[in-house]
Amino acid sequence: MNEYRVKGLSCGNCALGLEHQIKELEHGETATLSYNTGKLKLDSRVSLTQVEQILKSDNAYIDWNQAQIARSDHSDGHRHDNHSHAHDHEYDSGDHSHAHGHSHEHGNSKMIKLLIVSAILYLAAVFAGDSVNEAVLTGLYLVTIVLSGYSTFLRGLKNLLALRFTIDTLMTIALTGAVAIGEWKEATLVALLFGLNELLEGLGMEKARRSMETLLKVAPKEAVLLKNGIDTVVPIASLKAGDLVVVKSGEKIPSDGVVEEGKSSVNEAAITGESLPVEKEIGAPVFGGSINNEGVLQIRIEKAYQDSSLARILHLVEEAQETKTPTELFINKFARYYTPIIMIIAALVIVVPPLLLGGEWSKWVYQGLAVLIVGCPCALILSSPIAIVSGITRNARNGILVKGGVFLEQLGKIDTLAFDKTGTLTKGEPHVEQMVVYDPERFLRVAGSIEKSSSHPLARAIMKKVADENVETTSPDEMQTVSGQGIVAQVEGRQYWLGNERRMAHLRIPAEVRAQIDALKAEGLTLVVVADQERILGMFGIADEIREESKAVIAQLHRAGIRRTVMLTGDHQKTAEKVASLVGVSSFYGNLLPEDKVSKIRELGQQGTVAMIGDGINDAPALATAQLGIAMGKGTDSAIETADIVLMQDHLGKLPEAVSVAKRVNTIIRFNILFSLGLKIIALLLTIPGWLTLWFAILSDMGATLFVTLVSLTVLIGKNKV
How confident is the model at residue 423 (pLDDT cuts 50, 70, 90)? Predict the structure, then answer.
């Protein structure tokens, strides 16, 4: 299978139609076209010329600057490398899009301008009324229809000729019918409203399609290969199992492997979600994508990049995003039945009375065209988008960014919320939770003097505690860092040790102190011990700090109707249990790698509708797998891009309000649909005695549309909370 990037897709329903046409080509049976990712997969034998012609019918095209031509039997690494290559050509891609004039962003801008011009012309025609020549009035309406509805008309005409019945088909017949009976005003309004719907449906999709590209920017691009004593910078994709690489302080580890030389602390948050750095020494395993905090490590690569932890994360996100299209499928199914039914009813109204009941053809043609206008799905189309846009606006005022209407609807349906721990329920920053002091005079002063020049996360936590206690520090006379264990320093002429308990091998630790160390470790705390040559001066118990609002938010969510709250974390079970009990979640799971989180989300998804909240790269696969992904605003770019909703204020405080707004939006949408359908049914029943007039059809359609719009706008009413 070959893989290509497609741009210019106008809607999910259109993408499904294009996919169906491509499948009808020779060797095209296995073709797939994803609207969410803009990705087309084809058998290599399919004619690309024919495919491009099909795509062109919907103003879509293959972006050759970002095309990924990857055989299915190639490794994932080749695909990722091709992705990276595409990134190197982003500027060219932009030129290509501009040349075609079909980029989604450009398309939205063009649509907005056309709708504004169309609305101005329509209002001018309405207010002009009988004061201008009829030909001028008709010309204004015609220009407005062409500007706002020509693409819909052309698509509907093509579908009609191919006997494919969609909403576009009905809109084309409605436009033609309204014009045929001289109702230019109604025809113009139909074109304008449908153009608005298309615009609302397409807003924000480009960001969703770029989630994979953003993730790929996180991946290391190069590695330092050590061979025959010579350092060589090589592309990441060229690494293979058995290679020896050098990773300096601040650099990313290129792939999964084992430390062969050196000691350091490694930030594995991107992979495991562990907020605190993990000490690594000879023989310790490391994950690709982790960051070396200090020192120099020599790592023996055990997996080629395409098989590494980070590559698996990227693949999981890609897979999950391609399968998340239930709403688009539902809309397409609804249109498939609704449109032909309205057309059949209109045809029966026109034909049956004259042929079987001796009715007048002119009267029943009039009635049939009125049915088409009544059946026009304007109110139905606007039942959802205006309520959704209002809900999105309301949430934005409260600091919640919702990336699309389907995600707002989904937020109102969830009954299970899964939380990542690090950076979500907690701040993702180490802080001193407990402090055991044996020498009050020297403990904080010595610790502060040693750690004041360090940028290590644990050092920052200790310095914050020292500052909070207003303890004065001095500069050490001499200092030696032993990577992975701690520091030996001379302060005011005396030698001190600072680090984990293993660094205190020069001391005989009393039983009561050992018991205290074991107790702190049992609580899931990371220890930093300070000692002189004779005894331990004290110790810090450091943990990730829980957000102040977490407990209250969990309680509010339960009251708002969320049945179950679950915490998923890469931290060990003891830490997970402690945090879960403090914040009040229903259940928790620890020691989870990204693929474990995905499995747990899928398991929870079988029991209800699940949303996942996280902030790290390691959360991205779970965010994409859940029915709804929610990211913290100061999380990694990949998590934010992959997520469907972003908490812009970087805390959970506004989440319960967002859920309430979403539930209200869903209630209004259901009401709007029932109201608009009910009014149409009543109007259609009036055709039985022949009482349905064109003016009643116009007023009922416009009235339903206006009423639905006003009801939808009530979502905006309420106190803004920023």
Answer: confident
pLDDT (tens digit per residue) in 90-117: 333 333 333 333 344 455 677 788 888 8
Cβ atoms of residues 241 and 437 within 8 Å: no
- Considering the chain, what percentage of its residues have pLDDT values greater than 70? 74
pLDDT band at 224 (very low <50, low <70, confident <90, very high): very high
- The half-sphere exposure of 721 on its side-chain side, counting CA atoms within 13 A, is 12
- Let me know if 468 is a catalytic residue: no
| CA pair distance 196, 193, nearest whole angstrom | 5
DSSP string, 610-657: EEEEE-SGGGHHHHHHSSEEEEETTS-HHHHHH-SEEETTSSSTTHHH
Contact (Cβ atoms closer than 8 angstroms) between residue 243 and residue 267:
no
User: Each residue of 225-251: pLDDT tens digit?
Assistant: 998 889 999 998 898 999 999 999 888
The tokens 């009423």 sit on which residue?
707
Q: Are 1 and 72 in contact (CB under 8 A)?
A: yes
d(CA 118, CA 314): 44
Instruction: Specify the pLDDT at position 349.
Output: 85
On the question of pLDDT at 295 being above 80, the answer is yes
Q: What is the pLDDT of residues 589-620, one digit of tens each?
A: 988 888 888 999 999 999 989 999 987 666 77
DSSP track, 652-683: STTHHHHHHHHHHHHHHHHHHHHHHHHHHHHH
Q: How much is the pLDDT for 209? A: 44
Mean pLDDT, residues 323-345 taken together:
59
d(CA 668, CA 676): 12
The Cα 94–Cα 233 span in angstroms is 30
Instruction: Give the number of residues written for the chain.
Output: 722
714 to 185, 387, 646, 701: CA distances (angstroms): 28, 8, 24, 20
Positive or negative, the Cα torsion across 646, 652, 658, 663? positive
Task: Give the N- to C-terminal CA distance of the chain in Å, as an integer.
Answer: 49
- Contact status, residue 572 vs residue 595, Cβ threshold 8 Å: no
Q: Would you give the distance in Å from CA 328 to the centre of its chain?
A: 16
Beta strands in 159-256 (DSSP E): 222-227, 230-235, 244-247
Mean pLDDT of the chain: 77
Query: Of 76, 243, 256, 420, which is the active-site residue?
Result: 420
Is the per-residue pLDDT at 530 higher than 70?
yes
The answer to whether residues 281 and 310 touch, using CB atoms and an 8 Å cutoff, is no
CB 111 within 8 A of CB 240: no
212-216-220 Cα angle (round to 5): 170
C-alpha–C-alpha distance, residues 375 and 167, integer Å = 11
86-95, 199-208, 449-458: lowest mean pLDDT where?
A: 86-95
CA distance 119 to 492: 79
Q: Taking the mean position of all CA atoms in its chain, how far away is CA 635?
A: 13
Residue 346 has pLDDT above 50, yes or no: yes
DSSP codes, 307-368:
GSHHHHHHHHHHHHHHT--HHHHHHHHHHHHHHHHHHHHHHHHHHHHHHHS---HHHHHHHH
Under 8 Å between Cβ of 592 and 567: no
Query: For residues 617 and 215, is the Cβ–Cβ distance under 8 A?
Result: yes
Cross-strand partners of 231: 226
Please give the DSSP secondary-structure letter assigned to residue 586.
Answer: S
Query: Is there a contact between 244 and 225 (Cβ–Cβ < 8 Å)?
Result: yes
pTM, full prediction: 0.54
With a CB cutoff of 8 Å and minimum separation 6, the contacts of 450 are 476, 479, 487, 489, 491, 496, 498, 530
Asked if the model's pLDDT at residue 27 lies above 60, the reply is yes
